[in-house]
Structure formats: structure tokens, C-alpha cells
């Protein structure tokens, strides 16, 4: 509609240019509004759902599973950094109390393992990849074990060229959230996990 109005009121060339610019601005605005979602295990299944959904979900103390459902590029890297700092409690002054989703009376516990679901990251540029590498370094300094899940080949190639494998090992990359979560539970040395039920 914007292109049609611009063509009618201006000219064909200017109208097409306006349409292209408007489309680019729309994409940028949409990616800026996307929220990183904390996930919990839907009881009785192997599926992980957003904690703010309408399901009865389970969480394990010390384990944080996050889904970032948008491309990671220069325009979103700042938001990505702030969101991860908020969820993991990584402030400028060092490790802080992590923020939690769920009931307001729930006590936050230190995050020991974080799983990043990258299935929604369809594209990453060099700036976004460097942000992930820096996050990996900060997690290592804060003694938080970082796991990446469902990262497509193109994005993984960009992350590798940015030096991700200098910060994490191939054993920290998983094809599914379920596999990453199972590895996280083993790392947390939970044989009989105390599950926290969250109603949302």
C-alpha cells in the first residue's frame, strides 16, 4: 500500500524506492520488538514451551533455557546482549541475581547452565556472531556453562568464523533442545531432580 501510494503521488522510481526503504524499516522494527523467551518442560512430554504460555511447565533449579526467535545482526545485537544479561544476571559489575519468569514469589537461584535455542535465528552477521562469542566468554568467567541448540549450518558457520569454538567446545553444540537439556541435567549432577512446578 505504501509503495502504491508513493507511486501514485510521486513517480514510479521514487515510489519503488520508498517501498524498499519502508520494507527495510519494517523488518528492523519487527526484529527490535522480539522477546527472548524462557522455556520450561511441558509435563508429560518432551516439549519445551514458553513459561508465559498457558501450560503447566516444569523447571530445574540452576538450569535456564532461552529461545531467541529472531535474526541476530548489527541491529539486534544490543537487545540480544541486554536480554541475556537480564535473564542470566550478568551486569556490568559482575554476576548478579538472575531474573526469573513465573510466579512473583518464586526465589531466583543462580544459573549454572544455560541452553540457548537458536532455531529461530535464521541469519547472523559478523557483528551478531561477535556478540555470541563475547557472551560465551562472559558465561565462562561467571562459571555458567553455555550450550547452543538447533543452530542451523549457516549461522553456525558465521559463529565459527567469529571464533566461537575458541570459547566453547563442539560438545556444547546440540541438534535439539531436548538433547542439550539432558546434557545440562547430567552436568548439574541431578540424579533425582527437584522439579519446580510453574503455573502460568
From TrEMBL:
GO terms for biological process: transmembrane transport. InterPro entries: SLC26A/SulP_fam, STAS_dom, STAS_dom_sf. Pfam families: STAS. Signal peptide: none annotated. One of its GO terms (cellular component) is membrane. PROSITE patterns: STAS (PS50801). Residues 53-184 form the STAS domain. Belongs to the SLC26A/SulP transporter (TC 2.A.53) family. This is STAS domain-containing protein. It comes from Prolemur simus. The lineage of its organism: Eukaryota, Metazoa, Chordata, Craniata, Vertebrata.
Amino acid at each position: 500500500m505504501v509503495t502504491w501510494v508513493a507511486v501514485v503521488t510521486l513517480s514510479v522510481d521514487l515510489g519503488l524506492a520508498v517501498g524498499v526503504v519502508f520494507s527495510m524499516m519494517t523488518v528492523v522494527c519487527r526484529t527490535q520488538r522480539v522477546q527472548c523467551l524462557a522455556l520450561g518442560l511441558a509435563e508429560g512430554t518432551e516439549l519445551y514451551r514458553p513459561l508465559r504460555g498457558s501450560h503447566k511447565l516444569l523447571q530445574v533449579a540452576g538450569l535456564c533455557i532461552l529461545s531467541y526467535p529472531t535474526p541476530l545482526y548489527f541491529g539486534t545485537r544490543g537487545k540480544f546482549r541486554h536480554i541475556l544479561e537480564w535473564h542470566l544476571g550478568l551486569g556490568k559489575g559482575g554476576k548478579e541475581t538472575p531474573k526469573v519468569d513465573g510466579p512473583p514469589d518464586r526465589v531466583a537461584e543462580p544459573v549454572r547452565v544455560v541452553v540457548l535455542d537458536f532455531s529461530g535465528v535464521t541469519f547472523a552477521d559478523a557483528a551478531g556472531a561477535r556478540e555470541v562469542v563475547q557472551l560465551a566468554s562472559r558465561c565462562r568467567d561467571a562459571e555458567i556453562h553455555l550450550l547452543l541448540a538447533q543452530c542451523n549450518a549457516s549461522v553456525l558457520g558465521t559463529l565459527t568464523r567469529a571464533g566461537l569454538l575458541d570459547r566453547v567446545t563442539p560438545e556444547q553444540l546440540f541438534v535439539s533442545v531436548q538433547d542439550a537439556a539432558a546434557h545440562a541435567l547430567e552436568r548439574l549432577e541431578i540424579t533425582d531432580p527437584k522439579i519446580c512446578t510453574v503455573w502460568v
